[in-house]
Amino acid sequence: MVKRKLHEPLEERKGNLYFDGFSVKELADKYDTPLYLMSEKRIRDNYDRLYGAFVNNYKYVRIYYAAKANTNLNVLKILHSQGAYLDTVSPGEVFLALSAGYTPDRIMFTGTSVRNDELKMLADANITINIDSQSEMDRLLKISVPQILSVRVNPEVGAGHHDHCITAGPESKFGLWEEEVIQAYAIAQRARVGRFGIHMHIGSGVLEPEPYIAAVEKLLSIAKRVKKEVGINFEFIDIGGGLGVPYKPEDTELDVAAFSSKVVNLFKNKVKDYGLGKPFLFVEPGRYIVCDSTILLTRVNTLKVTPAHKYVGVDAGFNTLIRPTIYGSYHPILVANKLNEPEKETYSIAGPICESGDLLAKDRQLPEIQEGDLLAVLNAGAYGYSMSSQYNSRPRAAEVMIRAGKPVIVREREQLKDLMTNQRVQSDQ
Ligand code: LLP
Fold first, then answer.
1. Does residue 291 have an active-site annotation?
2. What is the CATH number of the domain that holds 215?
3. φ, ψ of residue 288 in degrees (nearest 5)
4. What is the pTM of this model?
5. What distance in Å separates the CA atoms of residue 215 and residue 204, rounded to the nearest whole number?
6. Looking at the domain assignment, is residue 246 inside a domain?
7. Ligand 1, atom 8: closest residue by C-alpha
């Protein structure tokens, strides 16, 4: 029996997996594997649930979708139509945002190690910049004095599902520390920047409100000092993204209504106590919006038994989904054509990449698998395609979305000729 309770867009029909009402077997046969299969409806539902939870507690809220999680133009456009704003980290993401129809006033840039030519491009395009170092601000002010500026604060508390994904606290490269923050705003004000915001992002994959409570307290106490000592008002206060989703069977879902009421109540009380006016509250979720909107379909080609493990060889490896390899992340896996069969075998699921770390799962309990079976790797919508590569000279997978009720290709599968893009062959001397 299926141990995992399936939720939208997944459904079991006669032991087979359906996605937004479509048989994943038929989709895999039609579009081939590896295939990212995405649900427009789930993206919209996730956005609505999150926005609803926040706006219910505070009227002046904006959702800045963190584009890095999934930059498919259709995802960006769907969220645009929902009323989202965008958090970007590179000129490339700004380019995609503008191409998807976002006007500059709906785009924020929160980069790190930003080059001068990038700062110029952002300033020329009137994108709101969230600076990550005093060096970045000094260089920006020499290039252009922006109308609005924000500073990324290290609130001294970080959290996240893996060390690599903790983006605040003592070990983090991100943000400015309290005393530096005060100085940065004073310098910006002397340079005649007129409008201000303040920002933090503590990390990614956080399933409880506690770290946010501590970090929001610190952020607002710094905002209070800036207001008092520098004399500026904040138009927005950005508490970053990081809201987690359950991956492991034992993970509990984040109750966004409870989360938002805890965090927003604290925010409202402190903003009032500190006389910070009525700033917008910005939230920057990436994973929460897209993670469970997408599955990765991959076909079994090889079965191999070694003294230590039973290996199932599939056609998606860390070139297609790298999270299990670099973070040891657990992704739920279903045998899409055997949902009702008992999970009586223990398998390691290996990809086609020539490295031993190329495993989508280690020693996982699954139904008995045969060559030709179809596996569905769940929660593949966030940091899946966007972190994929052509390593081992494998063209990237295709993306299909159930959009307006029918399957459409939203990104073509790469072809062998794409492996030669930008290469220049020099003739032998
Ligand atoms: N805002 C900023 C400034 C960020 O750096 C990030 C993510 C977000 C928002 C969105 O975080 P989210 O809501 O998606 O957790 N590749 C890793 C995640 C890295 C996240 C980096 N920053 C993973 O696959 O788990």
1. no
2. 3.20.20.10
3. -55, -35
4. 0.97
5. 14
6. yes
7. 241
Nearest CA to ligand 1 atom 20: 204
For ligand 1, residues with CB inside 6 Å are 66, 68-69, 87, 110, 165, 167, 201, 204-205, 240-243, 284-288, 323, 327, 382-383
Are residue 148 and residue 257 in the same domain, yes or no?
Answer: yes
Find where tokens 């995802």 sit. 75
Q: What is the pLDDT along the chain (429 residues), one digit of tens a residue?
A: 445 689 999 999 999 999 999 999 999 999 999 999 999 999 999 999 999 999 999 999 999 999 999 999 999 999 999 999 999 999 999 999 999 999 999 999 999 999 999 999 999 999 999 999 999 999 999 999 999 999 999 999 999 999 999 999 999 999 999 999 999 999 999 999 999 999 999 999 999 999 999 999 999 999 999 999 999 999 999 999 999 999 999 999 999 999 999 999 999 999 999 999 999 999 999 999 999 999 999 999 999 999 999 999 999 999 999 999 999 999 999 999 999 999 999 999 999 999 999 999 999 999 999 999 999 999 999 999 999 999 999 999 999 999 999 999 999 999 999 999 999 999 987
Cβ proximity of 122 and 110 under 8 Å: no
264 with 343, same domain: the answer is: no
Q: Are residues 398 and 254 in the same domain?
A: no
Rounded CA gap, 252 and 257, in Å? 14
Residue where one domain finishes, among candidates 269, 285, 301: 285
Residue nearest to atom 19 of ligand 1 (CA): 165
234 and 201 within one domain? yes
Q: What CATH number has the domain bearing residue 385?
A: 2.40.37.10
For residue 48, tell me if it sits in a domain: no
Ligand 1 center–CA 245 separation, angstroms? 13
Test site for ligand 1: of 50, 63, 65, 68, most ligand atoms within 8 A of the Cβ: 68
Residues 301 and 212 in one domain: no
Q: Which amino acid is at 343?
A: E
If one counts the domains in the chain, the total is 2
Identify whether 105 is part of a domain.
Answer: no
| Distance from the alpha carbon of residue 312 to the mean position of ligand 1, in angstroms | 31
Mutation pick for ligand 1 pocket among 162, 164, 204, 243 (CB with most ligand atoms within 8 Å): 204
CB within 8 Å of 409: residues ≥ 6 apart: 31, 398, 399, 400
HEC readout, 88-100: ECCHHHHHHHHHC
- Domain that residue 211 falls in: 110-285
Q: What is the CA angle 209-213-217, rounded to 5?
A: 165
State which of 285, 311, 342 marks the end of a domain: 285
Catalytic-role residue among 305, 308, 354, 425: 354
